[in-house]
Design brief:
Elements (H helix, E strand, L loop, with lengths): L6 H28 L4 H9 L18 H14 L1 H20 L2 H12 L5 E4 L15 E5 L4 E12 L6 E7 L9 E7 L5 E6 L10 E12 L3 E2 L5 H37 L1 E2 L2 E2 L4 H29 L5 H25 L1 H5 L5 H10 L7 H13 L1
Helix pairs in contact: 1-3, 3-4, 3-6, 4-5, 4-6, 6-7, 6-8, 6-10, 7-8, 8-10, 8-11
Length: 380
């Protein structure tokens, strides 16, 4: 057993930490208040190679594996959960193309996504198909005469969908086969018949836009089929296994950021003639927070290690995300409490962290769905 990061991973962590401090933190409150996508930060993440993490160098990426990605995402999330989420979700597109795409698709999309000119998104959820993704009704019927898929339907709650240059849309290419008729189709921004619907106004994660996608006789070339027809549901589930490690890393980062803020505040804030760090009751909060974070962190990195070494990671990824998201909610709650009334004001980042933490229990599968995945796996 070896719980150490390699020298290269430690260097990457330092780079990510510095980047988060210098480029991400100054915008964190601004993008939260303005509900604004930080395009400038995304461009800088491209320059530094973060947008290509996990994509092989031969396709324009920075190389690296899921451990590296989790390191970057958690460092970003310490300062701004939205920025971390944007990067984490962006990389799902590339991971899907890498795993299921053909050589032309890899050559076409991976360099654009890695070098950061292009943003990717992943569209599975529909108004009546959330946890029950198998209930999706969007169709993509092949028009044999033109060699195009014709998409009709609506996807909702899609992160980055309004800004993305290309989106993997899961749709029924053969509705008569139900789940076995679902396929992944790559839809590019600007394709006629594809429009952005409602832009959600949400509790947190304001820098990451969440939108509705509407497909109305939207035609895409047959060449945009990802993998084989009818394999879409399995591909989506595989992508989510990996994406859950990313959400776990976001959750750990949010919690670590909240603990850092709390420690700083506890040494500065004086009550009853001494810094509140000297009050045993408040110190116990810190003990709880640090313990929860340590446990959550190593479960996330264990899942990342399993995935990056090619091992089955479905159960551990679900456990890691489930556990880390509870940790993020509980730790940000305690951190806000430690800040007292000031924690409730937006002069401090705690109320933002508290709002941002909640989403980690919902997206890429709710906690209840993770419990379903874990219990099924344990019970066999
Ligand atoms: C900010 C944000 C960003 C998102 N980004 C994306 C994205 O980029 N791409 C994408 O495809 N989707 C995205 N989603 C959708 C997200 O994955 C879904 O919201 C989530 O899977 C839950 O689906 P739902 O909201 O329809 O809730 P529902 O499925 O309606 O669930 C309602 C409640 O019932 C519980 N429940 C449902 N089924 C069961 C069950 N079998 N057993 C026990 N409890 C159950 C749920 O856990 C939940 O508590 C995003 C959502 C949000 C809020």
């Amino acid at each position: 057993m070896d719980f150490k990061f390699t020298e290269a991973q430690l260097m990457l962590q330092n780079v990510a930490k510095e980047f988060a401090e210098k480029e991400v933190l100054p915008l964190a409150d601004i993008i939260d208040r303005e509900h604004r996508y930080p395009a400038e930060t995304f461009a800088k993440m491209a320059e530094i190679g973060f947008t290509g993490i996990g994509t092989p160098v031969e396709y324009g990426g920075s190389g690296g594996n899921d451990i590296d990605k989790a390191i970057i995402v958690s460092e970003l999330a310490k300062k701004c959960a939205s920025t971390a989420a944007i990067l984490s979700i962006h990389t799902i597109f590339a991971q899907a193309i890498l795993k299921f795409g053909n050589e032309e698709q890899k050559k076409q999309y991976l360099p654009l996504m890695a070098e950061g000119g292009w943003l990717g998104a992943f569209a599975l959820t529909e108004p009546n198909a959330g946890s029950d993704a198998a209930a999706a009704r969007t169709t993509a019927i092949l028009d044999e005469a033109t060699g195009e898929y014709v998409l009709n339907g609506t996807k909702c709650f899609i992160s980055g969908g309004g800004k993305a240059n290309a989106i993997i849309v899961f749709a029924l290419t053969d509705p008569s086969k139900g789940l076995k008729g679902m396929s992944g189709i790559i839809v590019e921004k600007g394709t006629p018949g594809f429009t952005i619907g409602k832009i959600e106004n949400k509790m947190g994660l304001h820098g990451s836009e969440t939108v509705e996608l509407i497909f109305d006789n939207c035609r895409v070339p047959k060449a945009n089929l990802l993998g084989k027809e009818g394999r879409g549901f399995g591909m989506a589930m595989t992508c989510l296994d990996g994406a859950r490690i990313g959400v776990g890393a976001q959750a750990v980062g949010i919690a670590e950021g909240a603990l850092e803020e709390s420690v700083k505040y506890m040494h500065e804030r004086v009550q009853f003639g001494k810094p509140i760090a000297a009050l045993q009751g408040v110190g116990w909060y810190v003990a709880d927070m640090a313990t929860k974070i340590e446990a959550a962190k190593w479960l996330v990195f264990y899942a990342a290690w399993l995935k990056s070494t090619g091992q089955n990671h479905t159960q551990v990824a679900a456990m890691a995300k489930y556990n880390a998201s509870i940790c993020a909610r509980e730790v940000t709650n305690l951190a806000l409490q430690i800040h007292g009334g000031y924690g409730y004001m937006n002069d401090y980042p705690l109320e933002r962290m508290y709002r941002d933490a909640k989403i980690t229990e919902i997206y890429e599968g709710t906690s209840e769905i993770h419990k379903l995945v874990i219990s099924r796996s344990v019970l066999g």
